């Protein structure tokens, strides 16, 4: 599979999902994979499984916000939150990759006062978030990833 990904020209990560997207992003240091569908941008979030203890990586739509990064724990509007958000609750100190930079971050959920402006920013990036919220009684949180140190090359 990795050899086949090397044959994909730049720009085609827009059609990738999951593990294939993550591999392509890492292989190209974000040159292929950061810019995704409909003008969105993707970061890679590492988390430690709260039960398994294993490292996991997730490709997520993000927006920068006052020196931090915003992601949405939507899981497409499912009633259960995505595993990565539960992992961050247990272990909030982690790292993200944004293009060719690895950034150490601490995750937290946006406060009720912060959330409306942040939600507007994220639905501007991906309008389907409003539809996802309508599908569930669970309040979909905005997760704020705040840098805790200097970025380093990926």
Care to describe what's here?
This protein has helices at residues 2-6, 18-27, 83-90, 115-125, 128-134, and strands at 41-48, 55-65, 68-72, 93-98, 101-109, 142-147, 152-153. It is an alpha+beta fold and 154 residues long. A 6-stranded antiparallel barrel has the order 1-2-3-6-5-4. A hairpin with a 2-residue loop joins β2 and β3. It is globular.
Structural class: alpha+beta
| Overall pLDDT level | 91
Cα-to-Cα separation, first versus last residue? 22 Å
Radius of gyration: 15 Å
Helix content: 25-40%
Helix and strand succession?
Answer: HHEEEHEEHHEE
Strand order of the largest sheet: 1-2-3-6-5-4
Main sheet characteristics:
6 strands, antiparallel, barrel
What form results from the Cα inertia axes?
globular
Question: How many helical elements?
Answer: 5
Residue runs with pLDDT of under 50 for 5 or more positions: 1-11
Q: What is the strand content?
A: 25-35%
Number of strands: 7
Provide tags for this entry.
single chain, 154 residues, alpha+beta, six-stranded antiparallel barrel, 5 helices, 27% helix, globular, disordered N terminus
